[in-house]
Amino acid sequence: MNNYNWPVYCRIEKGLLGSITDTILNQFCNKKFIIVSDEFVFNKYACIIKKQLDEKDIKNDVFLIDNSSYENALKIGEKALSEEYDAIIGIGGGKVNDTCKYAAFISKKEFYTIPTTIANDGVCSPIAVLKMKDGFTKSIGTKLPTAIFVDIDIIKDSPTELIKAGIGDILSNYTAIYDWRLASKLGKENSNDFALLLSDMAFNMINNMQKGEKIKEDNFITQLSEAVVLSGIAMNIAGTSRPCSGSEHLFSHTIDRLYNKGNLHGYQVALGAIVSAYLQNRDYQMLINLLKRYNINVSPDNLKLNYEEFIDCWMHAKESRKNRYTILNEIEDEELNTKLKEIYNIIKGEI
What we know:
This protein is α/β, with parallel strands linked by helices. The chain has helices at 20-27, 39-55, 70-82, 94-107, 152-156, 160-171, 173-185, 193-207, 218-238, 247-258, 265-279, 285-293, 307-315, 333-350, and strands at 9-13, 32-37, 59-64, 87-92, 110-115, 127-131, 137-141, 147-151. It folds into 2 domains: 9-156, Rossmann fold (3-Layer(aba) Sandwich); 160-350, Dehydroquinate synthase-like - alpha domain (Dehydroquinate synthase-like, alpha domain, Up-down Bundle), CATH 1.20.1090.10. 52% of the residues lie in helices and 13% in strands. The model has no long low-confidence stretch (mean pLDDT 95).
């Protein structure tokens, strides 16, 4: 029997922050907390949590970070252990979430995440992307948060571009699922039907939204938040990022590795998903239409990629993870180059 690590609590609703410590104290038996945030988010949101804990005379300490470094995660984990804190409360974006996930993992403490953005599916993933001492980032296996608290009002207050990036990251499930099934069919690795189901459900939650829905409406934020949680759980069940990461992610990783354009991850994988769907001989137009519906511009021009860079990233994408079998392994270089020219011209004409 597989022993999966599940979040034991997940709440997505408006106005959570105002009474969040009551919810934590009612649900869990912890009495000593480390609050992790960055300076901006602390002054705007996390200070409210500290004030609530202070008013209840609950022991707490604050650890502010400015990046998601391996060193910061170790410091927080060591502090939690040596000073016998019960749990880590992380409130912020991806850098706070990733740092806290690994700190909680190494210290074996509970971790309660309060995301301020949903720009990707890392909110509930078993992976932390941390910066190492050599300046490079590394994806490290961790555990999922113990509890997830998504305050819809906080997410609505985040930059629109970050919400759009979250949509883009979920769209990549569409092509990642195909790539994982392809690898499984050819005996390259085993897939997991339940993980695939959850990943597909997450994609369909966004794909099937009513056309009039606005991305900053409560219902849309709720659906997107649920989708990123489902994607994270899918990866945990799979024991790999495979249900949500295929050839489209290899493309994005290669952009970062070769050119470092500074784009939002969700935008890059969304562009990658359009191209991957074309290479997979599937409905890429559906993805283009969905992105247009929410005014998400993932054209190469908008991502600061010229034609040569676009082609180069795809031609070298397999090198990003050589053990990850995708549709790219099925196409010879000459044919791939031809297909990339075709889809590049299609994208230029439609986005």
